[in-house]
Amino acid sequence: MQTALNLIQELITWLKIGRLSELASSRHHTPYLTRHRLAAIVTRIRLAAAAFSVLTLIWIMLDAATLERTQWVTLAIFRVGAVMLFIMLAMAPDKDRNRRTVLSLLGSMLAAPMIIYGVFQLEAGGSTLAGLTAINARLYDALPFIVLAGLSIFPLVASEGLMFALPIAATVAAVQMTRTSPDIVNLFSTLWVLMLSLGVYLLACSIQLHYMMALLRRASLDPLTGALTRSSGIEVLDFHFRLACDQETPLAIVFLDLDNFKLINDGFGHEAGDQALRDVAIALNKLMRQADVVIRWGGEEFVLILINTPIEGVRIVMTRILEEWLGKRPDGAPLTASIGVAERQMDAVTDWSSLIYLADERMYQAKTHGKACCVLGDGNIMRSAESLNTALLNDKNNGLI
What we know:
This protein is α+β, with helices and mostly antiparallel strands and 401 residues long. The protein folds into 2 domains: 2-220, no CATH class; 230-397, Reverse transcriptase/Diguanylate cyclase domain (Alpha-Beta Plaits, 2-Layer Sandwich), CATH 3.30.70.270. It is built from 16 helices and 6 strands. A 6-stranded mixed β-sheet has the order 2-3-1-4-5-6, sandwiched between helices.
């Protein structure tokens, strides 16, 4: 009973945070998850294709021992073609693949055994067979189930799983109906077993995908703030920088360092400091778009990736941050930061590390200009109205104005 209650509670939690939709469709997957998921699929395609190439060659000998010469020669021609395809797939690189290309590779690997299945059914299906020939024919009849079972090793979303499984069922139905004397009872029983296998296969894919998502979340998210860790953030930054270069779109980096953060830990304790960091992450996620990325770079430093955002858009984001700031310090004062900004096109950089370096340098310039401000790439300094009045008062007291 307790186990059932735990499962129900977990299902309710999934519904609340929208994870079930991530198992059904890849539309809302983060680039970080998409990249790792596609890399895992390609790696498994390579391993499966290597195994299939060996098994396909061995099966030629079984055909030669059990089928008529014209039948096994015809099948051997298709099998040799399938082996060549499997070898090409086994040598496919496992990086820099988009979703459409990866699914095309998987589809081609699955199509090869289904074509062989159809050729055998046209050549020998429906005839009365005995002995080793009957055993071989049963193995061919099991091919769709083997293909469907093989799909369960891939972390596919439900929509992708159905996209591959339904053509397999349609192929089986078409082959059965093209026979001279189609057996309707056998057709429906075969399709029924296929549908049951489909349910198990989709469940297996979902379990795999959920496990991968849990591992990636644990490895990629900072446990304190929920922002990306530095290592996973670098991976996301590298992806978006290359994408921005390919598409000739802007990409901005914002480097934030919380002002006088050590005083919070020293004066109010580390629990207060941890809460302040959590408040910062919450505030940043509210002030930015959903597509933008928050990275905890280290300690009290955060990096923001503003995707497809020109400098005018960066000013808007900075204005919101400067006016609302990032929460409250334990004494009630606003939690401010020194901020540096760099933008790919405006700064004419060729790699993401240079973008980080420039934003970091400008963050230190903001420190030297009295903190609680933002230094842009053109040298302009942005301040909130309150911090601007404070800076003017300080300049007046120091005799600068």
